[in-house]
C-alpha cells in the first residue's frame, strides 16, 4: 500500500473528534498522526477512548499521545488538519496553519457565513480573519465540489444545514416552490448537543421525552438562508426550528413548502431523482418510502423522500442524515479527500448499523 | 365513603384499556366492575397485567374476571361503559348499550366526525348509526363542557387532535392567524401505535431512530379540520403530518402559523393565557418556556407554549400531551366525570412522573 | 378535610427532592410548606420545575418560594423534615432539627450504618453525631415498623439495599440458604446517579449501552451486609455488584444463593408468600412470573419472584423496585407516615405507569 | 482487485441475515451472490431493506433478487453458504449443501452440541444428521482456529456462549477458579430476540424497563457447559441466567467465580492478558477499566475486564460483545474467512459506533 497522507486533529475530546477517529480508522488513504487537546495532552488516545485498541489502525490510533495544539508541530507533521474546536477558537488556529502551508477543514461555524456582519451578529463575537473568510469554501460536495478540490480552507457545513440544504436544493433548482413560505421542522439526536457536562443533556433529562429548543433563533438559520438564497437566486428568509430527539445520532428535517403549480408525486419524484442521480452520497428513496434516521446511522448518506399533498398543493420534503458523520466528521473527511486529490467517498462508511 | 359508581370497560387488552385501569385505580368516585375481551375472557385481569395486584383498588381490579362483551350483562352492572375497541366495532356496541340506558364514552373514532360521508371516506367503512352520530358529543371539555354534562354518548377525541385543537383554539378564537396556511408537525410516542404484534413497532425497529409516517393522509386530519373549522367559523384545510418518536408516551405538536398582523411575544402570550386561565387541565407555560412531553407524562395536562418569530411574522405554537392519558383514557374519564355529575378532574393524575 | 401536617424538604434540586414533590402532591395528610436549596433560594419551585403548576397541590407547591436551609425557620414551620442532601451534610442538619423537636427522615447514608467505624471507613469522613447514630431507626417498614412509629430520626434505606434486603429476608428468615455464598447482581436506572452535570451520565454516554461500575466496592455493601447479618443472626459477607441501565427509574437485583437442602419451586414460593402475605407494599409474584421494573415504575411496591434451579440446588431471587420511589422518596414518606401516626401507605403511589 | 469469492445467505429476513449484509458490504474478499427467503422470494433486497442502496457493494446487494432456497442453485453459484434460519430447519439444508460440495457456516444451534441426546433434550426435536454433527467444528476462533481452517461445516457459536466462554477461558486454562461455583449473569440487547412480530418485544414493552427471562432453563446453557467442561478438563455444571436490556445490540456477561487461592488484581490481569495477547479479536481492558457494550457496538471484539474481590476471594469477569456481530454474523464471516483461506479478521468491522 502506498504511504498514507498524514493528517491531524485539533480538539479530540468532543463527539466530532471521536467520530473523526472512527472514520479515519477505516480510511485507506489518510493516517491520523496528531491529535491535540489542551486538557488531555500527555495521555494516550486509548486512555481517553478505551475502544481505540486492537489490531491495525485502531491500535495505532489508541497509542497516539495527545499533544498540545502547536501550529509548528502540526505543520511539520501533517498535510491537512481538521479543527474540531468551538467557533471563535477555530479562526486563529486556522490562520496559523494555513500560513504554514497546511490545508484546513474547519468543523466549527467560523468560516461558513460569507457575510462577516451576519457572523458577528448571530455568533456575538468579532471575526478576525476576513481574508480567510473570503477564501473559505463551503464544504458541501453536492454544491461546491469543484471549488473544494482547489481549496486551502474548507468550512465544513453545519449538521442541520446539510440536511436542509440537500433537501431543498432540487426543489429550488427546478423552481418548484414558493420561496417565501418555507418551514423547516428539524429534529436532532442528542449527540448534536456535544459532550460537555450539563444537566440538560443528562440521560434522565432527555430519555423518554421530546422537546423543541431555540425556536426562531437557532444559529444555523443564517447558514441555511445563505445557501438557499444562492440556490434560489434571491434572498430567502425561512422558518427554521429545532427539536431534541432521545436518540444518539441522526437528524430528520421535515420541510414544508408550497408548490408554484400543481404537481403529482411522480413529477416531483422525477425532479429529485434527476438532481441526485450522479451523486454517490445522496439517496432519493423510492416513491412511497420515507427516510428513517437509522438507515443512515453511522454513514455518509443523506436520504431524501418527498410527499406531495395534492389536496393542499404542498410539497413536503424529508431529509435524514447522521449528524456526526454526514453532518460533521464524515463530511469533513469527504472535504479532505477532495482537497488532497483522493476519491470523494474514499474511506467513508456507507453501510448503516441496523438495527 | 359513598358507594362509587360502577363502570365497565369493553376492550381491556390494548394500551388505552391498560391506561384506563391505571386511571380508575386512583379514582375515588368510579369503580371498575366489568372488563371485557373476546380473546382473554375467563382469565383474571391480574393474569394479563401482573401489576394489578396489591392493596385496595389495584388488588380488586386484578381479581376481576375478564368477561365476553355482553350488552345485557354490562347494562345490568354498569352505569357507564368505556369502549376501547377498534373503530367500526364500537358503533354497534355503543348502540346496544345506549339502547339499554347505559352511558357510553367511545374511545374509537366512530363518533368523532359529524359528517358521515367524511367518516366513510377516511375510514373506508360504512357508518351504521346515523342517529347516534348526530347525538354524540365531541369530548373535549375545553370546547364542549356543557354538552358533555348532558350527553349519553361521548366521542372521545383522538390523541393528535386533542393536542392540535387545544394548541390552535386561542389563536383561532382571537383571530390572530391566517387559516389557510396552518402546518401541524406532530410527533407521537410509540404507544400510539397500539399493542398488537407487529415488526414495525418492535423495540429494535423504533429505538434509536426517528421517522415520519402517513404523511398527508393521517386519519386524524378530518377530525382536526372539523373542529378547527368550527373554531374559525369557516372551512379550514390544513397540513397535518405525523412522526414516530422512540418514547413510550407523549405527543408534541409543533404548529406553524402566520400572524394576520404583527404581534409581540407578550401580546400572543396574553391571548393564550386569557383563553385558558380558568381551565384546570391546560397549562400555558410562562413566556420563554417550551413544553416537554415528560412534564405531562402520565397526566391530564395539555401544556402549551408559544414562540413569535417577529422577523417572519409567524406564530409557532407548541402543544404537549400524554397521548394515553389526556389523549385517550384520562380524557375519557374526564368525560365520564362530567356525564355522571362528578367534578371534571376527579381522580385524574396531575403530577407527572419525573424523571 | 382535616388540616394537613406541615413538612419541609431540605435539598430540592436532586431527583429525590423532585420525587418527593411528586409523592407529596398526591398526599392527603402531608403538606409541603418549606423547600430549601442553597443555590436556588429565592426562586419559586415552579421556576425550577415547570411541571409544578396546575390546580390544587401542584400549583400550591409550584408557588412555594425556595428558601435557604435555616433550622429555626424549618422548626417553626414543620413537624417533620426530609433531608435530601448528600451524606456528611445531613449529619449536622439532622442534629439541629432534632434538637429543636422536629422529626427527621434522612435520605442520605449518614445514619444507616450502626457501626460508626464502618461508616467512616466506607464514606471516608468522620461521623460527628454518635448519639443520633445510636438512636436512628433504619426505615424499612417490613423490618422495623414498630420502631419507626416511635422514631425521631429515620435513616431512609438506600435504593439497592431496599431491593436486596427485601429479596433476601424470607430466605434468611426461614434459613433456606447458605449465607457464605450470596451474590447480588444489581442493575439500576440512571436516576440513581443523581442530577449533577457529568459527562458519564450524559444521554449519549448511557443510552444504547450497558456497563458495570464500582464492582466489589459499592458503598451500599456494608448497609446490605448489616441488615442481612441481623436477619441471618450471624455476620455475613456477600458479593454485591452494580450495573448501570439505560432507563430512568428502576432497580432489578438478581440474587444468587445456594439452598441448604433440596427444595422445589413450590416450597420456596410458599415461604416467600407466607413472609409477605400481610405486607401492603411487597408483592410476591405468582410462580413462573418474574418481576419487571416497569411494573413498579413510579410506585412503592417491591416485586419479588423466585426461581429454583433444582439441577444445581440454587435459589435465584429477583427483586424489583423503583429506585426513586420505593428506593428513596416514597419510602421516606412511608417513614414519615409511621412517625406521624398516619397509615403507612397513605398517599403513596401504587399504580405503575404502564407502558 | 482479484475476483471475490461468491457466497450465499439462506434466510435474509432476520437480524442476523440483515447483519450479514452489513458485514459483507464491507468485505473485500467475499461477494454475496444469493440471498434466499421463502416469504420474500422475487423481491429485490433493497425493497426489504431500503438502506441497501448507494454506490458499490451496497447498491449491488440491494439489486440482488431474493430467491427461494434451492440447494442446486446455491451450490452452482456459491462456494460457501451462511444459514441464518431457525434450528431444525438448518439441519437438512446444511446436509444438502455439503453433499454438493459447498462449505457451510450454520448460525443456528443445530450443530453446536456434540452430544446428540443433549441437543434433542434441550431443543425438543430429533437430530437427523448425526454424521455432520460429529464433523462440525464449533466456530470460536480462539479455541478452534486450526480445525476451522479445515472444516466443511462450522457451527457458529451462540451469542451468550461466545461472551461467556471467552470470559471464562483464561481462568479455566490457568486453573484459577473453582469449577463448581460459577454463576453467569448475562444481559442481552433486544435484537437477540429476533425480528418476528411479538407483543413481548414491542418498543413499549421493552423500553424503559428491565427484566430477567428463561431463568435456569436457557438453551445456551448446555452449549456453555460443553465448552467450559472441555476447557476445565472435567464436567462442569454452572448457573447461566439471562436478562433483556432496552438496547438494540450488545451482551454483557457478569461472571461470578471463586478463586482457588488468593490472588491480586494484577496477577489475574496478567493471566488474562497473556492468554489473549496474540488474539486480534479479543481485548483485555487495562486494570480498572470495565467493558461497556457501546465500545464493541457493531464490531467483532470481545472486550474483557476482571475485578478481584480480595475481601471475598472472588473473581468477577466481565465480557462484552455485540450479539449480532461477534455473537452471530461477524463471527460467521470470521469462520468463512478461515474456511476459505482468507485472513481471519478480513472485512470485519472493528471501530465501534460511538456514541
Explain this structure to me?
4 copies of one chain form a homotetramer. Chain A contains 13 helices and 13 strands. Chain A is of the alpha/beta class and 355 residues long. In chain A, the strands form 2 sheets. A 7-stranded mixed β-sheet of chain A has the order 8-9-7-10-13-12-11. In chain A, strands 2-1-3-4-6-5 form a 6-stranded parallel β-sheet, sandwiched between helices. The two termini of chain A are 34 Å apart. Chains in contact: A-B, A-C, A-D, B-C, B-D, C-D. At the A-B interface, strand 7, strand 8, strand 9, strand 10 and strand 12 of A face strand 7, strand 8, strand 9, strand 10 and strand 12 of B.
Provide the residue-averaged pLDDT of chain A. Answer: 97
Cα gyration radius of chain A (Å) = 20 Å
- Main interface: chain pair and counts: A-B, 46 and 44 residues
- Major β-sheet profile of chain A: 7 strands, mixed
The ordered H/E elements of chain A are EHEHHHEHEHHEHEHEHEHEEHEEEH
What's the count of strands of chain A? 13
Oligomer: homotetramer
The end-to-end span of chain A amounts to: 34 Å
> Which spans of chain A of ≥5 residues are poorly predicted at pLDDT below 50?
none
**Class computed from helices, strands and strand pairing of chain A:** alpha/beta
Strand order of the largest sheet of chain A: 8-9-7-10-13-12-11
Helix content of chain A: 25-40%
Amino acid at each position: 500500500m502506498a504511504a498514507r497522507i498524514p493528517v491531524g486533529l485539533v480538539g479530540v475530546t468532543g463527539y466530532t473528534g471521536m467520530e473523526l477517529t472512527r472514520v479515519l480508522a477505516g480510511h485507506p488513504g489518510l493516517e491520523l498522526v496528531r491529535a491535540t487537546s489542551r486538557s488531555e495532552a500527555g495521555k494516550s488516545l486509548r486512555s481517553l477512548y478505551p475502544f481505540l485498541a486492537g489490531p491495525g489502525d485502531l491500535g495505532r490510533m489508541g497509542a497516539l499521545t495527545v499533544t498540545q495544539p502547536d501550529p509548528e508541530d502540526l505543520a511539520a507533521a501533517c498535510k491537512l488538519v481538521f479543527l474540531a474546536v468551538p467557533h471563535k477558537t477555530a479562526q486563529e488556529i486556522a490562520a496559523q496553519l494555513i500560513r504554514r502551508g497546511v490545508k484546513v477543514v474547519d468543523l466549527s461555524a467560523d468560516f461558513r457565513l460569507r457575510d462577516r456582519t451576519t457572523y458577528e451578529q448571530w455568533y456575538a463575537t468579532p471575526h478576525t480573519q476576513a481574508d480567510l473568510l473570503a477564501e473559505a469554501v463551503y464544504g458541501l460536495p453536492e454544491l461546491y465540489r469543484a471549488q473544494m478540490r482547489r481549496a486551502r480552507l474548507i468550512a465544513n457545513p453545519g449538521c442541520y444545514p446539510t440536511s436542509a440544504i440537500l433537501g431543498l436544493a432540487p426543489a429550488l433548482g427546478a423552481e418548484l416552490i414558493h420561496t417565501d413560505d418555507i418551514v423547516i421542522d428539524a429534529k436532532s439526536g442528542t449527540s448534536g448537543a456535544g459532550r460537555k457536562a450539563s444537566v440538560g443533556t443528562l440521560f434522565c433529562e432527555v430519555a423518554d421525552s421530546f422537546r423543541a429548543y431555540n425556536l426562531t433563533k437557532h444559529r444555523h438559520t443564517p447558514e441555511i438562508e445563505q445557501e438557499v438564497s444562492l440556490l434560489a437566486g434571491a434572498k430567502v428568509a425561512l422558518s427554521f426550528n429545532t427539536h431534541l430527539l432521545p436518540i444518539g445520532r441522526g437528524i430528520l428535517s421535515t420541510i414544508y413548502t408550497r408548490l408554484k403549480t400543481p404537481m403529482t408525486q411522480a413529477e416531483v419524484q422525477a425532479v429529485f431523482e434527476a438532481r441526485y442521480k450522479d451523486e454517490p452520497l445522496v439517496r432519493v428513496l423510492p416513491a412511497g418510502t420515507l427516510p428513517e434516521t437509522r438507515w443512515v446511522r453511522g454513514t455518509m448518506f443523506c436520504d431524501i423522500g418527498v410527499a406531495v399533498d395534492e389536496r393542499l398543493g404542498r410539497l413536503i420534503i424529508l431529509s435524514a442524515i447522521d449528524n456526526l458523520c454526514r453532518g460533521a466528521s464524515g463530511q469533513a473527511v469527504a472535504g479532505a479527500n477532495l482537497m488532497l486529490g483522493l476519491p470523494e467517498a474514499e474511506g467513508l462508511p456507507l453501510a448503516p448499523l441496523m438495527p
